[in-house]
Structure formats: structure tokens, C-alpha cells
Amino acid sequence: MHKFYIDPIIGRAKTIDTSFYLEPQILEASKEKIFAPSWQYIGHTGMIPNVGDAYPFKLLENFMNEPLVLTRDTNNQVHCLSNVCTHRGNLMVYEPCSAQKHLRCKYHGRAFHLDGKFISMPEFTAVENFIPENNHLHSLPLFKWGPLLFTQLAKGIGPELFFQAMQKRVGWLPIDKLVFDASRSNDYYIKSNWALYCENYLEGFHIPFVHPGLNAFLDFKDYSTELFTYASLQLGIAKNNEHCFDIPTAHTDAGKKIAAYYFWVFPNMMFNFYPWGLSLNIITPIDAGNTKVSFLSFVFDASKLGQGAGSGLDTVEKEDEEIVQHVQEGIRSRFYHYGRYATLREQGTHHFHSLLANFLQQ
User: Fold this and answer.
1) What percent of the chain has pLDDT over 90?
2) Cβ–Cβ under 8 Å, residues 319 and 210
């Protein structure tokens, strides 16, 4: 596999080699090296609102395809568990269900508490050296922010370095009041590598050229990027005072005409905060040249919907989609292998490429 290296000095760095986007074995390696140890969005508390609820899903479906289940136990605690029976590997929960006192496998009847702890198994009294404590459903770490839930497939870095900067910056917003709006959520299927979509998001350099509607609202000269360990922030500053956040006076951003906080969390999550709420974008690879982009809308102030930078998201998405699909075609050229970075505008993309290279080398 190609050995990737990104120079830490952006002014002399080259972009990641095009083999990263094109070679299927690199995408396969990224499952364990990039996605498994990072934190991934798995749903929201509205999926399991009541004690006894269970909600099965596949993490990064069509890519990782890991069967998991969210449960809410009798103590009102939410759990993320493996949805695979520890007897013969059957799926435990086939579809969302409620009023469950426990989980029971439909294959041979093995039962578990809603926190995944083993209860019983028929016809196992004569099995030698059977240790119930070794047969619990695997319990995954769970990070909760407001109604949003995240987990990690492989033991790695804790959630702090992924989420702390974002929590600190926009924690004054009513995150606990976010309500999922299915009518404003959508999936888009794009003929490009997942990383091309991410790196396009990570720079505002293209806005004047690709997004005329958004450019008419945002002040490009004041557009800025801030880098954190496993995250970054782009500040969308409005050209006028309309449709901006009402920021507390003691806040670090007080007095700024901020229309949008665009947070990215490595490797594939985008948290777009607008005065109406959050557009959470989850980027899921399908194969080296195809990607699913999920736009998930969470609203805390419906009166501000359809205004400012947080309006017309479908149009902005289609404009981005057109660009990255053409880039996917272009990087196949025998004459192109890498580019260079605009030092004042592409810090986010340089940061992303550096993380990709570092994780792949681990």
C-alpha cells in the first residue's frame, strides 16, 4: 500500500496522493485504521424514548456494516450493544421494538438484559467451562451530547479531543432541545470518493466560485478556519446583521456577525449550526468511487428555518456534488497526482490530509 506523507508546513506541502482516492485496498485499510477507532454518529435519543425500547441498525451501512442495537434499560439508561447473539451469531433484534423486558434470540432462546448482560440459555446445563460473564453482548462506549449519540468500534482515543472544542464553542446553544426533523433530512448518493467530499467541505475557498447564493450572504473576506486536534471550525460571517446568532456578551465570538458555525469532526462528520438548529452531515463510503451523504436536520427554533446561510441546503449540496464528481473524474488522469495548498484558505484540507496520512501509518 502507498506510504502517505503530508508535510506539516502547509506552504511546502503537497496534497495527498491520488492513489488514496482510487485504490480499493486503501479504502479497505481505512475501515480499521481510520473509521473503527474514531467516533461515529449512531442516532439520537428520540429513537429509544421509553424504557424497554430497542432500535437495531448497521453502523456505516454498506461500508462497515456492523450490526448494533440501541436500548433503554429499566433504569432509563441508554446502551449501545452488539446486535449479535453470543451463541451462534444470529441478529438479536430484527426491527425497532418497545416494551421489552429483556432481549431474547429468536434462534435458540438465549436471553440478555437490556444492558447486554447474559441471563440464561436453554439446554446448556451440561456444557463444560461455560462462563456466563464471558457471554454478555458486547457493550460499546457511548458518548452523548444533547440527544445525539456516538460510539467507537475499536478502542482508541476518548471523545474529548473529537468533541470538546465544539462543545465549548457552541455549548451555549440549546443543544438539549434539538428535535430530529425527518421531513428536512435526506440522503444523497455521490459518484466520488468520500474524502473528496470532506476536503471540499473543509475550505471556503470555493464558495465564490461554486455557491453564488451562499456567497451573496456570507462575507468571504472574513471567512476563517480554526484547527483542533481531531476537528476544525469554519466561521461563516454574514455581510449584514440579518439571520445571525444572538451570541452572549461574554462569549469569545461576541460582536461577530456569525451566520453559521461549520464544525468538522474527523473523519466524516459535519456539524453545521445555524440559528434554527443543526444540520448534521454524515459521510459514508460505499466504495472507492461512491459515497452516501446524509443530511440530518435537528431543530430548536423553527421560526428561523428558511433564513440566511441555513436555507437552501439542498441547492448548496447539489453544487458541491457537481464539483466533487468532476474532481473524481479528473484525479484519474495520468497527468495529475497531487496539488498544492492555498496557505490562507486550505488549512482545513491540509489538516484533514495530515490526519489521514497519520492514521493510515499507525
Assistant:
1) 80
2) yes
